[in-house]
Amino acid sequence: MSGAQFAREIRLAFSADMLWSDIVKEVAPLARADRDQAIRAGEFSAAYDTLVNGREGAREESLQPGGAIVYRARSLGAAVGLALDYLRRNSPDRVTRQGSAHATTTRYRDSFMVGISRGDQAGRAIPAESFDPDLVSADATEAFVYNLQPFSRQVDVQLEGSRRIRFSIEPGIFNRAAAYVRRAYPDLQAQRIYDLDFPGKYRPRYAKASAFQSPGLIIRAG
User: Fold this and answer.
1) pTM for the full predicted model
2) Which sequence spans correspond to the domains of the chain?
3) What is the percent of the chain where pLDDT is above 90?
4) Vertex 26, ends 25 and 32: CA angle to 5°?
5) Which residues of 109-144 are buried (b: 16+ CB within 10 A; e: fewer)?
6) What average pLDDT score do residues 181-206 get?
């Protein structure tokens, strides 16, 4: 998917005595047709916001002299949906510790969460199964994806202290998810976070214990 914004200049020849309302009647459908062609060609996201004269949600027909029709992609929501799909599909089902195999059940796969930020304003945490990419507005600036399970770091690095733990997947699931997102959305920034703080993060009950390190994924609009 290409750029986060689609603003193509349309040059048309109009007579000097033509009314602005007549000009807009010509320009508005051309802008929509150009947008739809870009979507069909895979050059622009099918999820977008429309800005006319800088006003979000305005109709193309409300264009004023000196204004512009801009379609702003909602690629962040789609990228988060892609990351969640990758993480859930590639979650481990078994772990080997000290030579014995133990089922990890589906707790890890079903414990992914998403947080969406808009500038300095952090949004609420959303369980992966409730996340709707189409509800992420185009003004969202970054998203965090993480797992609530206290063994999330063990899944990612497959170490318990200095001892190796072997899951049914290779180490580095968050790095692989980041690379997967970058390939699909080169206009976005995606990378693994070493340790992410979030509500409900597991903290041992014994005295002076710090929270377990929990890696995650951050996806930022370009």
Assistant:
1) 0.69
2) 5-73, 76-221
3) 35
4) 95
5) bebbbbbbeeeeeeeeebebeebebeebebebebbb
6) 82
